[in-house]
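Predicting holo structure, flavin mononucleotide bound.
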Amino acid sequence: MRYLTSGESHGKQLTTIIEGLPARMPLLKKDIDESLLRRQKGHGRGRRMQIEKDLVEITSGVRHGYTLGSPIALVVNNDDFKSWVNIMGEDPVEEDEKIRRVVTRPRPGHADLNGALKYGHRDMRNVLERSSARETTVRVAAGAVAKILLKQLGIEVVGYVKEIAGIRAKEIDTLSVQERFDISDASPVRVLDKDVEQEMMDRIDQAKKDGDSIGGVCEVYVEGMPAGVGSYVHYDRKLDAKLAGSVMSINAFKGAEIGIGFEAARKNGSEVHDEIAWNEERGYYRKTNRLGGFEGGMTTGMPIVIKGVMKPIPTLYKPLQSVDIDTKEPFNASIERSDSCAVPAAAVVMEHVIAFELAKAITEQFPSDQFPQLKKAIDAYREEIRCF
Ligand SMILES: Cc1cc2nc3c(=O)[nH]c(=O)nc-3n(C[C@H](O)[C@H](O)[C@H](O)COP(=O)(O)O)c2cc1C
Ligand SMILES: C=C(O[C@@H]1CC(C(=O)O)=C[C@@H](OP(=O)(O)O)[C@H]1O)C(=O)O
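Done. Tokens:
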């Protein structure tokens, strides 16, 4: 399975094409829309999210609620495009820089300057339109399809906020996947404890008032993955590495951590590794899950627990100093609009990005043209390893 995305932030629409999904898998538009809606929520977002109402159109690969085995194309419109037709249209427009809203002032922390240097764009709008996290809309759409596949195989994936600007959510290690779903709705910030929730929102409001931005930590929890998915045989087939890579591919994410992650550096082996046990019902399992569901680049069958760190948003109302690429003069520009914190939305993005990577790994390990065959193959494998 693979997917491509296309689309600019203020262009007409965003598109993703997913290839490699088996035929005859139930797939409904409403399930994708549900994910898209969750990504739009969250305290700290700017005005743009009030303009957009993200809904998917499935334009190919699905008929009467089932996949055909052909590429699936999903489209999401940018409602904001109507205000940007002259600026974003494909036809040449007059050279008036105001009409084209030419950008010559790169924001520290965004892709503006490096993208301009790489592609030779003297108008950095040509960079920011694509580097914008607006693209995560269709990444979520692709991930929603992956989630549907996983769910029907008994695999649940859920993402939520762990920390915002140093304010930590209450420990949720003992919660079931269902209980984690209850806090996965990003509206406005969802954590277990209402006081912590309020504290996080106040901190976001403060950042906004100060013209600043804040980041945080998201966590994704996966239940139901059978042991042995991924591989130790080749470096590029290690599934934990792929998951970490996919987290790092999300805009503004600066690191990923599986299980206790960096904490392992400060502990003894006896406090890090998870003892192995077996019983008739579960087969092999670990008594603890400090390694977060991975050993040797393969799943252990225990829940996958992965965190991602999101840096503060780069566009600041109180901007840092930069240099205008036309005049080479320093400047401190004011901006039109931006999110001040997008961690709750990013948790939803992370959930979907991880889901796609897992669905990809499953379909690679159990290649099947038809979804019922895939389901049978996984069921048989689960039974085989339980009694192994
Ligand atoms: C959901 C989401 C919303 C974001 N919103 C903004 C925003 O409003 N303004 C901004 O400057 N960056 C925003 N970002 C972050 C930038 O897209 C990101 O920092 C930029 O693409 C540069 O990439 P890098 O930070 O990974 O190096 C957002 C990121 C995510 C995941
Ligand atoms: C549009 C989305 O996020 C955008 C991500 C983003 C950026 O620079 O990454 C900048 C902002 O865009 P705008 O300049 O149009 O307000 C965010 O709103 C979205 O998440 O759907």
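The CA atoms of residues 275 and 287 lie 5 Å apart.
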